[in-house]
Amino acid sequence: MSTIYLTEPNVSFKVHTKYLKVFHQNQQKFFIRVNNISQFIIFGNIKLPKDVMQIVRLNQIPVLYFSHTGEYIGRAENPSTVQAKYLNYQRQNLHDKEFNRATAESIIWAKLHNQHTYLQSWTRNYNDYTIQRALNYLTLLMDNLSIAPSTEELYQYIEEADKIYSTAVASLLSLYSSNCYASVQQINRFFELGNQLLHQYIYTHLQTAGLHPDYGILHKDTDHELPLAWDLSAEFHAAIVDDLVLHFVRNLTKNSNGNCKRNGKKYHNHLKQFLQSWEGKLKSLVLHPYIGEVSYRQCIDFQVKEYIASLLGNVDYYRPLALKLIRDRNNFSNTVESQKPALTLVK
Predict the structure, then answer these.
(1) Helix H segments across 210-295?
(2) Cα 264-169-265 angle, rounded to 5 deg
């Protein structure tokens, strides 16, 4: 399944039987089977033509809209009228305190563990008080999860951990503050965009697997859109989004050559590079504790299946994703640096 990113207004389409052809400035960039399209992600004021919107409606393909600077606007979707395969199981477990507590604790432990692991990996040759304090605090919270009296208090652990962890990430980003290729606001937009892309990607897996995304455990639908997707994305934020943004910023700094322009066109080019790097990140390899060396795409697919297994009672509890880095083979900075396509459309 492929995502179609649209970042330029002068894009055209042709629907040919079961295929969609995409053109930019009258040159065909690629064609793809309609049933292989997982979603459209659109930046700026770009409108899909009627025949493409018909494909979107008939195939229940989500469409996400962002501003030209990558700020999330909203979604257009025509969900299936068929009941999600595991909806009854989700409803049955909605008030199962033991299931909810065990699952919440597993997810939060994995989130804290992965934040700790990746913070260590980023600071092998750099450390200060702020970072060491964050590492110590994450360890303390992981050790104390079992004594939290409720799921609501467990969620407070996430909020507390995120505060001190974010301070440590900001300390790392300050290493590049002397280079003015992008503002702090623009860097924050990359974090926000990465979080939205991750959330949406996990949502497409939930949808394919037959899970209803509104039945979350940690996040509630009153405060979060598609809360189950936010639940499962918690384990991946540090490993995928934060790691991607930190390396992306570092590589932009290396390649800036003292160019301090912050005009919109330059940022737009950075946005396209970021989307290419995002796709590269999903393909990069990590060491999964249960299935070995796999890509992040496979990790996400496995964790969704693991959640279903816990929902059905086929396993005693939801086994969280505690990631280990492949030091030599998973050098993502090299992956980012090697990606230099100038296409405005990324498949």
Answers:
(1) 227-233, 243-254, 264-283
(2) 10
User: Token pair of 186, please?
Assistant: 């623009």
Q: Which two tokens stand for residue 334?
A: 């090299």
43: which strand partners?
Answer: 66
SS3 217: coil
**Is residue 72 helix, strand or coil?**
strand
> What letter would DSSP give residue 237?
I
Dihedrals phi, psi of 28, to nearest 5 degrees: -70, 125
pLDDT tens readout for residues 8-63: 888 888 888 788 988 888 888 888 888 899 899 999 988 899 998 988 888 889 99
d(CA 135, CA 148): 20
Q: Which of 2-16, 31-45, 205-219, 253-267 has the lowest mean pLDDT?
A: 253-267
Rounded distance between C-alpha atoms, residue 226 and residue 213, angstroms: 5
Residues 53, 13: contact at Cβ < 8 Å?
A: no
Are 152 and 102 in contact, with CB atoms under 8 Å apart?
no
Please compute the mean of the pLDDT values over residues 103-107 and round it to a whole number: 93
Q: Rounded to an integer, what distance in angstroms lies between the CA atom of residue 101 and that of residue 217?
A: 9
Burial class (CB in 10 A: 0-12, 13-18, 19+), 179: middle
Which distant-in-sequence residues (6+ apart) come within 8 Å of 253 by Cβ? Answer: 176, 179, 181
Pure H helices in the chain:
50-58, 87-92, 97-122, 129-144, 151-173, 184-209, 227-233, 243-254, 264-283, 296-312, 332-338
**pLDDT number for residue 12:** 86
Question: Would you say residue 238 has pLDDT above 50?
Answer: yes
Element (H, E) at 284: none
Task: Record the pTM.
Answer: 0.87
